[in-house]
Design goal:
Residues 1-37 are annotated as: Disordered. By secondary structure, this protein is of the alpha/beta class. It is 34% helix and 14% strand. The structure holds pyridoxal-5'-phosphate.
């Protein structure tokens, strides 16, 4: 968010118990205080002000991890001072990052090569940074191929669905690439082969397929999109690579949908990203980017720095980054193993599909997706029901403490307004049942029927 400079904002008050005798009971809100205060007072002021933040675990809007085991939190606290970039100073943190890359590349069925030139990857601050890096690799590759062919490197484009996460629009705008977005259509909430095909041309640096869509949790058909591009290459000679934005699905599909072809088993998939801080089960921010082979990553994008000791190749937009998140990712991978991750994600999917099915039984809701891909689902209000909308429902749910966002879909489905629920580790059947119950109460109140008439005033937990 961009923030205005506001030195004249009204002051912040300090509760009498917290202000030391003779200490200030007012603090400037938007201006650096002139002097110091004792650490306990500072802690109390900040701690108390945050009380009005929502309860993270009741935040069904976010994909990002809101609960970790205390052992993981302890490890993170032990590593807070470690900077990920200082590979020479913290060689074991660096080694742990390398192990994570390898484990994750294996999870995505990356090919290995005896010469060590097989899959390569890195940690990032999140999927957004990973997507920028993958997009840049596409752009440089396309330019190199065009230059070699004596063709123009102007007007590159990237093909994607209108449902992409904002990071792809950012990539395109920040790095001068045209974002070619396939509009959605009734009954189709994401990109597919037919909608992508007309957008691809010789200026296309790549196609982004999403596993799964932020809008409704549905998986885009990666193998089908790749097959369309294979046919296109046979017809025209155009060789267009695919990047899979598996921000969420990268840590779901390998465990729950082992037969789904979406990863490096699809030869056209050049690179994949995932957010360690979504279904990777780590607190924000850590992401992962993996390329099929070392040569998918143009050498000119890799910087070698020697001022930290040793020769360190780096590919990233950030320099300093927290090391704790990478250590926490390693903890989760080691702690849970394949079977542990499978059980955690299956529990989330079971909760999501159960809840979606119950909500579908409440008039006037209708499912847009059912939680059977990402443990995420979206519901709409059935056509013709006009007494209230999804925004009213979202606002009422907030009075119970639930954060369930309401929004409209992008181009092609702008009239589709939904509520979306993201089920994550730590959100179990008990809470799910409560949400369904409260949703029923909200609908009854909004339709002017049922027991909960009038304005709900109390906080029901
Ligand atoms: C969340 C998300 C992103 C951005 O990821 P961050 O880790 O928040 O930077 C990108 N793409 C998709 C599909 C996402 O769901």
């Amino acid at each position: 968010m961009l923030h205005a400079h506001r030195p004249d904002a009204p002051p912040l008050s300090v509760r009498p118990q917290h202000a030391p005798p003779g200490g200030a009971d007012r603090l400037p809100r938007h201006r650096l205080p002139d002097g110091e205060m004792d650490p306990e007072t500072a802690y109390r002021v900040v701690h108390d002000e945050l009380l009005l933040d929502g309860q993270a675990r009741l935040n069904l809007a976010t994909f990002v991890t809101t609960w970790m085991e205390p052992q993981a939190a302890r490890l993170m606290a032990e590593c807070h001072e470690k900077n990920m970039i200082d590979k020479d100073e913290y060689p074991l943190t660096a080694e742990i990052e390398a192990r994570c890359v390898s484990m994750i590349a294996g999870l995505w069925n990356a090919p290995t090569r005896p010469d060590g030139e097989g899959a390569t990857g890195c940690s990032t601050l999140g999927s957004s940074e990973a997507c920028m890096l993958a997009g840049l690799a596409f752009k440089r590759h396309w330019e190199a191929r065009r230059r070699a062919a004596g063709a123009s490197v102007e007007r590159p484009n990237l093909v994607m669905g209108a449902n992409v996460q904002v990071c792809w629009e950012k990539f395109c705008r920040y790095f001068d690439v045209e974002a070619r977005q396939a509009p959605l259509a009734p009954g189709r909430t994401h990109l597919d082969a037919d909608s992508a095909r007309p957008l691809v041309d010789e200026h296309t640096i790549g196609v982004v397929a999403i596993l799964g869509s932020t809008m409704d949790g549905s998986y885009e058909p990666v193998a089908e999109i790749a097959a369309m591009l294979d046919a296109l290459e046979d017809e025209t000679g155009l060789d267009v690579p695919v990047h899979v934005d598996a921000a969420s699905g990268g840590f779901v599909a390998p465990f729950l949908d082992p037969d789904l072809l979406w990863d490096f088993r699809v030869p056209r998939v050049r690179s994949i990203n995932a957010s360690g801080h979504k279904y990777g089960l780590v607190y924000p921010g850590v992401g992962w980017a993996v390329w099929r082979s070392r040569d998918a990553l143009p050498e000119e994008l890799v910087f070698h720095v020697n001022y930290l000791g040793g020769d360190m190749p780096t590919y990233g937009l950030n320099f300093s980054r927290p090391g704790a998140q990478v250590v926490a990712q390693y903890y989760e991978l080691l702690r849970l193993g394949f079977e542990g991750y499978r059980r955690v994600q299956q529990a989330s999917r079971d909760t999501a599909t159960w809840m979606a099915a119950r909500i579908a039984e409440i008039e006037p809701f209708e499912l847009v997706s059912d939680g059977s891909e990402l443990p995420v689902f979206a519901v709409r209000i059935r056509e013709g029901e006009t007494a209230f909308d999804v925004y009213d429902v979202s606002a009422r749910l907030r009075q119970y403490g639930w954060l369930v966002p309401a929004y409209t879909f992008p181009e092609g489905l702008q009239d589709l307004a939904v509520l979306r629920v993201v089920v994550r580790n730590g959100f179990g059947p008990e809470l799910a049942a409560k949400l369904v119950e409260h949703l029923g109460e909200v609908v009854a109140a909004l339709s002017g029927r049922g027991a909960v008439g009038g304005e709900p005033t109390a906080f029901h937990h």
